[in-house]
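Appendix B. Raw example, untouched.
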Amino acid sequence: FDCQAASAPALQEELHGLLEYAVLASHRQAFDPMESAIGQAGIRLLANTEHLHSDWALVDDYPLSRQMLAMSRVWRSPDRLEYLVAAKGTPEAIIDLCHIEAERAIAIAARVTALANQGLRVIGVARASFPASRLPDNQHDFEFAFLGLVALQDPVRPEVPEAVAQCHAAGMRVVMITGDHPATALAIAQKAGIASAAGSLLSGAELAAMDDTTLQARLKDTEVFCRIAPEQKLRLVQAFRSRGDIVAMTGDGVNDAPALKAASIGVAMGARGSDVAREAAALVLLKDDFSSLLLAVQHGRRLFANLRKAIVFIVAVHIPIVGLSILPVLFGWPMLLMPVHILFLQLVIDPACSIVFEAEAMEAEAMVSAPRKPDVRLFDREVLVRGLLQGCGLLAMLVCFYLRVKWSGKSDDMARTTTFLALILSNLGLIYTNRSWSRPSWQRRGASNRPFVWISLSAVLLLLLVLAVDPIRDLFAFSLPGLALLLECLLVAAMSIAWCE
């Protein structure tokens, strides 16, 4: 039966009872994909039969636990005096509940292994009846009859293996924690690229028998954790974190909430996740697939890197502004930067910080680098030193350029004009070079930044407007430079780019 198919083949009569009790053992308002699939199969394959019981009343249920990986639901029909009990769970647990003889249990286990090796999730289903009196405290007190096995397949999405491979390339480790049969878990993990052909597994029973020291040793090379109870997920998250790992945990059920809360980053499924899981998580995915996690990591790395670049630019760009404002006072030079000049500079600086670096694409090396350490700060020594070196180098070039123009006999207004032009062009050069720290900016193919292009064109056009319109030029205390001086301004900007690179 395919949940996505428009039509479904008829179900053999001898399997009606198996599906009937699988439906009864599931929640009617299911958020679990497995229970949802069973419910859909029941509605479509048992339609117009006596095996659907919308009028039955739920009396009690026995939830799944670490000691018994099976759940039972007790029902009462309007026309019967006894309770009917439906159970589903791991085949091993259902075999235990039914007290099946050893020979038959071996045959069932072999069938389970064969299905699990195909990557199918296999559950056992059983039924029992009980007089309408006080219910027992334990599922074992019912006399269950084994009905059969239900195998379900949730194919690995085509994009998952590539996403897992990219996670590995980015220095992230991906492990699988599931309640599935070991063979099922390993088959799915291999298809997804999480586990190698001889991937290391750790079962819930083995985990329960381990102390914390032994568990720490096993975490290093274990890729798949199978038959894990909900409370064991919490222990695994805590164990990984005690190693110093940054743990992102995904989950969708109520039982996942403690582990989601304990993880460094709890990630809940938005479409099928329970309200409890979403409340406990730090991040909720609107699209429930693994590639969304990779996209989140990519955005996180891009934003962190771009914020650091913006900080370097802010530090670097203000050093020549401060220097060109203070040095004339100290050395008795004519004023170089007036309030109107500072205002003009802000028209370049502010959009660069808020738009250009925000729009900068992720660098190609970002997802092949190891994750940054948790103690790396946004504004650290590297950012400060890089900004100081860029700013001081630019200031030195501008001062030398100003003195050269002055010593060549040009007027104060001309020296101010050329220095300011060189400052604006060099600021654009600062933006250009800080777009990439891993390679020269001109080698970043396919990484266009339209806001930078528009800001650069706007700045150049505004400069031409200031120089061309006499009242505005007088307001800025500028003179109209010749072609040779304009070329020298471009040369200073090019030298600043070379220095920053």
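End of appendix B.
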